[in-house]
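Milestone 3.1: sequence recovery, worked example.
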């Protein structure tokens, strides 16, 4: 197979973990006889510094012309003023809209050897294998915003087709898993959540009667993710709730550096990125955990290139390396030697070979 992948290193540790992801993709290409070409482009703070635009036209063009997009991270203290007219996060939001990727898929699995790295008690982590599906292009993040000297507002709006299409993604995933879907909202307070719940009930009954559907308020979901995470199979929710819950769920795995994400739309072209941020405090030190990026590259292989065997190979390599005791600083036990970003990637590549 031949594929063109746009690479957006971005800011902070983004370039370091992107380099690790590309090394692993190259190893996969070598092992399986594929040819991957890369188009590196600017996004976020790096793009602001270079061309005063967090999502330059050249980046937009490359992304829509590629088979998939691999993203590092955006943002940092240099561009942290929330009142600035141009911010790195605008590049990420604009990219999601440009690519029409509305479904953010974040799997959370527990590697037993990392149970002690999690702040959650190990006995509560047994059997945790869940996926959070976050609606990505609607809701309060994209609604009309107003600001005066004395007030401010952010409009949260969802249309029926937006709710239905994200529900279909989540329900189809649930059908291939344990058949359980938890829809998270705030229907006791928000009209948009009551609408979301009504659409969910109607559509699921008509199209997915085999799925066990549960409704849960977002505050309760946040509590149960810590108290009984193994009870969840597939969680689906709106944009802001999903943003918050997925960061919380990352702590189950021991580190945000371990977890990947895939943002998908109606086509195979997807946006793949680790869930962590730019981590400016460790940028340039060579100690960032690349596993989340490498696992995101595995999702790229699976969802955009339809290379399931290759994706599983990468995921198994990550698990084997962790089982072998290789650790970056964020997942190392007290007194345990930690490897660098490059050394972790090299260990995974060695396992692949």
């Amino acid at each position: 197979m031949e594929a063109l992948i746009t690479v957006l290193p971005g800011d902070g540790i983004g370039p370091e973990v992107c380099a690790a992801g590309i090394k692993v993709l190259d190893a996969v290409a070598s092992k399986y006889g594929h040819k991957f070409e890369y188009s590196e482009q600017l996004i976020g703070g790096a793009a602001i510094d270079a061309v005063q635009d967090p999502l330059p036209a050249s980046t937009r063009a490359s992304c829509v012309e590629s088979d998939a997009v691999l993203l590092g991270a955006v943002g940092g203290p240099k561009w942290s003023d929330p009142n600035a007219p141009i911010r790195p996060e605008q590049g990420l939001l604009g990219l999601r809209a440009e690519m029409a990727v509305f479904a953010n898929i974040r799997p959370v699995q527990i590697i037993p050897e990392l149970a002690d790295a999690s702040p959650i008690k190990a006995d509560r982590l047994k059997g945790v294998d869940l996926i959070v599906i976050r609606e990505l292009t609607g809701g309060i993040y994209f609604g009309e915003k107003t600001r005066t000297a004395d007030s401010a507002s952010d409009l949260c709006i969802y249309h029926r087709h937006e709710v239905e299409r994200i529900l279909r993604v989540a329900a189809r995933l649930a059908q291939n898993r344990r058949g359980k879907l938890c829809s998270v909202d705030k229907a006791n307070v928000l009209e948009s959540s009551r609408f979301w719940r009504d659409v969910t009930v109607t559509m699921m009954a008509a199209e997915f009667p085999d799925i066990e559907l549960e409704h849960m308020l977002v505050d309760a979901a946040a509590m149960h993710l810590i108290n009984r995470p193994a009870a969840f199979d597939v969680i689906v929710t709106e944009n802001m709730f999903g943003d918050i819950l997925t960061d919380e769920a990352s702590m189950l795995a021991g580190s945000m550096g371990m977890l990947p994400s895939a943002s998908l739309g109606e086509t195979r072209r997807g946006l793949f990125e680790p869930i962590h941020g730019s981590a400016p405090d460790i940028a340039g030190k060579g100690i960032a955990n690349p596993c989340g990026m490498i696992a995101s590259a595995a999702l790229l292989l699976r969802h955009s290139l339809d290379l399931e065997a290759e994706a599983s190979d990468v995921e198994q390599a990550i698990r084997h390396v962790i089982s072998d005791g290789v650790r970056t600083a964020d997942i190392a036990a007290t007194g345990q030697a930690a490897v660098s970003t490059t050394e972790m990637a090299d260990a995974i590549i060695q396992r692949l070979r």
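The radius of gyration is 20 Å. Residues 111 and 319 are 7 Å apart (CA to CA).
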